[in-house]
C-alpha cells in the first residue's frame, strides 16, 4: 500500500505541469497590452507533456526540454510565463539525482547551459559570451546540478543505512536462532542421555527376559510383552521429540494422549457448528495407534483445516470431517462443500501443516475439490513407523 501511494504521488507530480503551465500562461495575458504567442503556448504544452515521461527517460527528456527552452527563452515573455522554460532545470535535477554515469549528467548539464546561453543571447541583445550571460548560465545550471547531486547523495546514504539496518537485523535473528538451536540441541542431548538410553536398555532387557522365561507362566509372558511394547512406544515418542527439539523451525512439541485428541477434535467440530456450519463428522473410536507426535499432528491438522473453513467458506455451508483408521495409520479428510468464497487458505498455515505431517512421516494433499476445499492427510501408526 505504501509503495502504491508513493507511485501515485510521483505520477501526480509528473502531471502537475499539465495543469500549472496553462494557468501561468493565462496569468501572463494582459488584454490590450500583452498576449502570450500561440507558438509559445505550443512549446510550453509540449514541454509539459514531455515532463510527464521524464520518470522513464530522464536524460532524453532533459535534452528535449533544453532544446525547447531555446525558442521559449528567445520569445519575449511577461510575468509568470517566463518560468516555463525552467522545466529544463527541473529535468536536470532529476538526471543528476537518478543517473549514475557522470558522462550522462555532464551531457545534460552542457545542453541546458547551452540552451540558457543561446536563449539569453537571443532575447536580451547581450553578447553570446558576455559576463552577464556566463554568470546567468552558471547559476541556472550550477544550482540544479548541485541540488541533484545532493539529493543523489542523500538517497545513497538512506539506502546504505537501510542495508546496514537490515544486515544488523539479519545478524541478530541468526544469532537468536543459533542460540535457540543450541539450547534445544543441549536439551535433546540431555534427554537422550538420561532417558532414551535407559528406555532402549529396558526394551532390550525385556526382550531377553522374554526368551529366558519362555517356558514359564504365560501370564508372565503377557506382562513382559506389554512392558516391552510400552517401552518401545515411549522410546519412539522420545526419538520423535528429540528430532523436533533439534529442528527449531518446527516449533515446540507437546505430548497428548489419544482420548485428549478425540476430545479436542470434537470440541473443534462443535465450534464450527456453533459458527453456523453443518458438520458431518466420522471419528474413529480408537486413536491409540498413533504415537505422541502423530496424535498432536492429527489434532493440529483438524484445527487448522476447520479454522480455514470458518475463514474462507460461506456461512451455513456443509463440512465433512473423517478421521478413520486406514493402511496401518490414521487417515484424515476435511472437506468444505460448494459455496466457498473463493479465497485460498493462508499459505503459512498450509506450510505449517506440511511441516508437521513431514515430521510425523505422513502425507498431505490440499486443494480445491468439487467446488469446495479439501484437506487429505495420512499419518502412520506406531507399527508403520517401526517398519
TrEMBL record:
Q: Which residue ranges does UniProt annotate as crossing the membrane?
A: 36-52, 79-97, 104-122, 128-151
A single Gene Ontology CC annotation of this entry is: membrane
Name the keywords, alphabetized. ATP-binding, Coiled coil, Kinase, Membrane, Nucleotide-binding, Phosphoprotein, Transferase, Transmembrane, Transmembrane helix, Two-component regulatory system
Asked if the keyword Transcription regulation belongs to this entry, the reply reads no
* A GO molecular-function descriptor: ATP binding
Give coiled-coil spans as residue ranges.
Answer: 158-185
Taxonomy, superkingdom: Bacteria
Does the UniProt entry include the keyword Transport? no
Which EC number(s) are documented for this chain? Answer: 2.7.13.3
**Residue span of the signal peptide, if any?**
none
This enzyme catalyses: ATP + protein L-histidine = ADP + protein N-phospho-L-histidine
> What InterPro entries does the record tag this protein with?
HATPase_C_sf (IPR036890), Sensor_HK_TwoCompSys (IPR050482), Sig_transdc_His_kin_sub3_dim/P (IPR011712)
Looking at the record, the residues that make up the Signal transduction histidine kinase subgroup 3 dimerisation and phosphoacceptor domain are 183-249
Its protein name is histidine kinase
Organism equals Nocardia tenerifensis
